[in-house]
Amino acid sequence: MENPISAAEERQPSHLLNVPSVSQSPRNDGEQGTNGKAMGFVLVHAGAGYHSESKAKEYKHVCKRACQRAVEKLKAGAMAVEAVTAALVELEDSPFTNAGMGSNLNLSGEIECDAGIMDGKSLHFGAVGALSGIKNPVLVANRLLQEAQKGKLSAGRIPPCFLVGKGAYHWAVHHGIPPCPSDKMATKFSLSAYKRNKRKMELAEKVESEYKQTKKRRQSSENGGLMDPPPQQDNDSGCLDTVGAIVVDREGNVAAAVSSGGLAMKHPGRVGQAAHYGCGCWAENAWNPALNPYSTAVSTSGCGEHLIRTVLARECSTAVQSEDAHQALLETMQNKFISSPFLASEDCVLGGVIVLRCCRCVESQPAQDIQALLVEFLWSHTTESMCVGYMSAQDGKAKTHISRLPPGAVAGQSLAIEGGVCRLGSLVG
Prior knowledge:
Elements: E1 41-49, H1 56-75, H2 80-93, E2 113-119, E3 125-131, H3 137-149, E4 162-164, H4 165-174, H5 182-185, H6 188-220, E5 243-248, E6 254-260, E7 281-284, E8 295-302, H7 304-310, H8 312-319, H9 325-338, E9 351-365, E10 368-381, E11 385-392, E12 399-404, E13 416-428
Parallel strand pairs: 3-4
Antiparallel strand pairs: 1-5, 1-11, 2-3, 2-6, 5-6, 7-8, 8-9, 9-10, 10-13, 11-12
Helix pairs in contact: 1-2, 2-3, 8-9
């Protein structure tokens, strides 16, 4: 990314990425301008965790493809929800991400996926948790959202917005989403990681068991005393790479989505932040200029338990309603995540967010008012790295960036934040 903003730098407007505006003819029907230029913007992430230099090209490539798929939808006239779903399907299909194909295996050696999606226009939300046997869990989450928008079921029943396990699987198949055997969703990368993590876990359990037995013997002896604690296992933040995307369409509607295979070696049935309301994603169109003048969208990644206990997606959305989005996000990540009282017992708080906010801006021109959609986008993480990609419907190709903590920073205790702005075309009001 060109001239990114870091947390250690003083924010200057000149550091922001500016995309030139493109004039369009007046339209009142929501279609593209007569010059063929489309409106819309997408920001994606391939997770907050650890992205090795050896696989940097693959991570960036999948982010580019996800952006391109979303922009293709936007150019074809699709709304934000459809575009964000297309981006997530591309991210889920990559063997390099922990979502859909190639997801982490749980303790039983099985794949269970979580996904969530939110439409900023209707404020409807759909999610699935601990779902096995479906290649693209985001499609199920999106279908739940769509069905909820249709209204009540027969006999006045309320349609579900969140389904888990076998119930989610059967509902998905009943609604035309094809099943995929779980063994077909595992890749050589996820299988090798499972075997490696299983060996590490067994070794750790053996060390802890021996430590406890030795401690008991010493405490029962006359010369019993304090012992050194057992060696701590490294936190494999590479297992936290949940994927997500946020989109604004030509009408200024926003949508957000997130998908994850969950923590490596998780307990069967565990559901992470991706499926929890307000924790994995958030999208909300501006509805009251006095209370929320900006449309906002957020997608998170990291340790699900940390993100759930802080409801981070919604917290970030509320925070960036303030005048200075960069400063607001910085303070939220520091005060309501790293230093959150809900995580006081944690010495390593792992998470990341991508955030988008947009508003209509009017610039006076001779004999006419020019109205454009101004988008500000940011990402922040406490993990070692985070891979992002972004693209407007006016761009020829997507831009990608692997954001890393500053040298000397400690993962889980330090913060990185970057971003930019984009002016989406110009419309004569």
